[in-house]
C-alpha cells in the first residue's frame, strides 16, 4: 500500500504561482502513470497533467504553458508547478499514481491504484 500526501496549496491572487507537491510513502517506488486531477465546486473532476514512465507528459488545454508536472529524481516527490494562476484554476487538486497501467489505460481518477486526499487551491481576481 502506498499513501500519497499533497501539500503546497493555498490562496493566491490571479497571476501568482504555486507549487504543489505529492509525497509517496514508499521511496523509489516504480510507477507507470502519475496524474494530477482537480475538481471545482459543482463541476466534474478533470485531469490536469500526467506523466508516464517513458517521460511523456500531457496537459489539459486550459493549463498548457502554465503548469508543469515533474518528478524529483531520486526522490518520491511529484510536483505540479503552476504559474499565471487564474480564478478558474480554483479547485481541490489531487495526485494519483498507478504502478501497473499506462496513462492511456486510466480513464478517470477512480481507476488509479493510489490517490491522495487533495489540497485546496484558491485563486482570487
Topology record:
Blueprint: E1 4-7, E2 10-13, E3 18-24, E4 33-39, E5 46-52, E6 57-59, E7 67-71, E8 77-82, E9 91-98, E10 114-115, E11 119-124
Parallel strand pairs: 2-11
Antiparallel strand pairs: 1-3, 3-8, 4-5, 4-9, 5-6, 7-8, 9-10, 9-11
Overview of the structural elements:
The structure is a single chain. The protein is mainly β. Helices cover 0% and strands 47% of the residues. The protein has strands spanning 4-7, 10-13, 18-24, 33-39, 46-52, 57-59, 67-71, 77-82, 91-98, 114-115, 119-124. Strands 2, 4, 5, 6, 9, 10 and 11 form a 7-stranded mixed beta sheet that branches. The chain has a 4-stranded antiparallel beta sheet with strand order 1-3-8-7, with no helix packed on it. The termini are far apart.
Give the key terms.
single chain, 125 residues, mainly beta, 7-stranded mixed β-sheet, 4-stranded antiparallel β-sheet
Amino acid at each position: 500500500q502506498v499513501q500519497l500526501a499533497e501539500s503546497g496549496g493555498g490562496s493566491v491572487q490571479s497571476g501568482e504561482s504555486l507549487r504543489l507537491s505529492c509525497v509517496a510513502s514508499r521511496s523509489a517506488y516504480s510507477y507507470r502513470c502519475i496524474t494530477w486531477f482537480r475538481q471545482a465546486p459543482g463541476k466534474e473532476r478533470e485531469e490536469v497533467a500526467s506523466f508516464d514512465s517513458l517521460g511523456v507528459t500531457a496537459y489539459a488545454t486550459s493549463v498548457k504553458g502554465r503548469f508543469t508536472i515533474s518528478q524529483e529524481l531520486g526522490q518520491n516527490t511529484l510536483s505540479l508547478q503552476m504559474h499565471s494562476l487564474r480564478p478558474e484554476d480554483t479547485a481541490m487538486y489531487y495526485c494519483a499514481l498507478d504502478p501497473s497501467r499506462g496513462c492511456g489505460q486510466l480513464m478517470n481518477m477512480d481507476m488509479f491504484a493510489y490517490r491522495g486526499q487533495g489540497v485546496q487551491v484558491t485563486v482570487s481576481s
